[in-house]
Amino acid sequence: MIIVPVKDGDNIERALKRFKRKFEKTGAVRELRARKNFEKPSVKKRMAKEKAIYVQHLRVLEGE
User: Fold this and answer.
1) For the segment 38-58, what is each residue's pLDDT rounded down to a tens digit?
2) Contacts with 4 (C-beta within 8 Å, 6 or more apart), sequence order
3) Which domain holds residue 38?
4) 1 within some domain
């Protein structure tokens, strides 16, 4: 459970923003989307490898 302490005179928008930030850090939405459709471990591994190759390619281009 996420608890956001709100002091007297504290802006509700600021408290809501703090709540959203804490909620995002938990990764609940990301996990929900990942669990929505089953993905085989081999597919996850392949996608991670492709992403690593892409990122490495970008870093090489950035260095030039």
Assistant:
1) 999 999 999 999 999 999 999
2) 15, 18, 19, 22
3) 12-63
4) no
